[in-house]
Amino acid sequence: MTSHSTEPSDRPTAAGDAGLPPATASRPPGILGMTLDGLRAELAAAGEAPFRASQIMEWVHRKRVTAWAQMTSLPAALRHRLGECYGLRSLQVMRQQGANDTTRKFLFRLHDGRFIESVVIPANPALYGETADRHTLCVSTQVGCAMDCRFCASGLNGLTRNLDAAEIVEQVVQAEVLTGERMDNLVFMGMGEPLANYRNLMTALTILNAPWGTGIGARHITLSTSGLVPQIRKLAAEPLPVRLAISLHGATDAVRERIMPVNRKYPLAELIPALEEYVTAKRQIITLEYILIDGVNDSPEDAVQLARLARRLRAKVNLIPYNTVEGLPWVRPDEETQDTFAAIVRQQGATATLRREKGHDIQAACGQLRLREERELAEKP
Ligand code: SAH
Q1: What is the three-class DSSP state of 31?
Q2: 124, 255, 259, 346 — which has fewest CB within 10 A?
Q3: Closest CA to 34 of 304, 219, 160, 214
Q4: What does pTM read for this prediction?
Q5: Which residue, by CA, sits nearest to atom 4 of ligand 1?
């Protein structure tokens, strides 16, 4: 059994086992984390007909059944066996916030009692009774985060664990089922550092993109990273043309280092060439995310430096006013400072957007909800 997508540390596997996972495993792996090829191979190794894999994917991804018994085109014995070997769902919805056509947050409880959240952001929010016509889902990839960015709520308690591929994919499946809407775009900007969970992320992306899976176009999927250089280079060589956003937040090492410890490991002198490699290999426009924090990175000189980097990378700049996190000292600059900053970046020849409302919404995904809810739920008997 080698084709599962979980990291080695997530689930112990006996060396040399093949076919369907042993029925005795304490928690069967999620079928939503299986690729078509992987499932075919496991079925074949278990003496089942490999063509069943496509049928199973159809039930799982198209019809989205929640019980094995509903897979009526499969022999009962196979359904029974599958039910012993794989899980169909593992995320339990604990709380929903927001209504149709506004930002909707879902708090999910994982099988081990941990929490993650996913946020649906409607693109053209309902105005005058019209409905939103596009939906973006902000997806989490880890429970907690090890990057330790000084301004971020997600890493306050460090990293607990990686999500497996099924847990990543299921956020999208559940969001679509719960809202009754198709997710048009995915942004990996929820909890966690996606590129620190590389293997599970890649498996999940394969499934989310595949026609037999969720079927979301790679160009409608954006990975956001704090700047893990080796993984950015690795990603540049992958065939899937997903979009890349970099959480830059500082245009010099001095500024970036102060708020993002990852910069000590991968300073700008390493990050920028890796991004150039990515841009050249993928022929893509990347996004530089830049949260504006009062007195930290919002001076006119910062704006000039940022524009210089953006021009060099032919990147688009996304300015996001910082969202206050309880217990952290940072605040957003006033609107005049924000506007001046954006104006300088543009004067210097870079493309920049300043997103006041959206930034706020997207931020809702960054661990703040989870921390509060986790505390509340833990206090309940
Ligand atoms: N680890 C990845 C993705 C998760 S965070 C990354 O670093 O890119 C998604 C975005 O939200 C990042 O740009 C992050 O820096 C930003 N962010 C985190 N906390 C924030 C806050 N309090 N206000 C505004 N943006 C924040």
Answers
A1: helix
A2: 124
A3: 214
A4: 0.90
A5: 189
Atom of ligand 1 nearest to the CA of 191: 4
Q: Are 67 and 241 in contact (CB under 8 A)?
A: no
DSSP-derived secondary structure for 200-245: HHHHHHHHHHSTTTT---GGGEEEEES--HHHHHHHHTSS---EEE
Nearest CA to ligand 1 atom 10: 189
- 374 in Cβ contact with 115 (< 8 Å): yes
- According to CATH, the topology of domain 31-85 is DNA polymerase; domain 1 (1.10.150)
- The pair of structure tokens assigned to 279 is 């841009």
Ligand 1, pocket-test mutation among 139, 162, 197, 247, most atoms within 8 A of CB? 247
Domain ranges in the chain are 31-85, 92-379
Say yes or no: CB of residue 354 within 6 Å of ligand 1: no
Mutate to test the pocket of ligand 1, among 151, 168, 318 (most ligand atoms within 8 A of CB): 151
CATH of domain 92-379: 3.20.20.70
Question: Exposed/middle/buried for 190, CB within 10 Å: 0-12, 13-18, 19+?
Answer: buried
pLDDT in tens, 214-234: 999 999 999 999 999 999 999
C-beta 193 within 6 A of ligand 1: yes
Instruction: Give the closest residue to 152 by CA, choosing from 353, 309, 371.
Output: 371
Q: What is the pLDDT of residues 115-152, one digit of tens each?
A: 999 988 887 655 555 566 789 999 999 999 999 999 99
d(CA 300, CA 273): 25
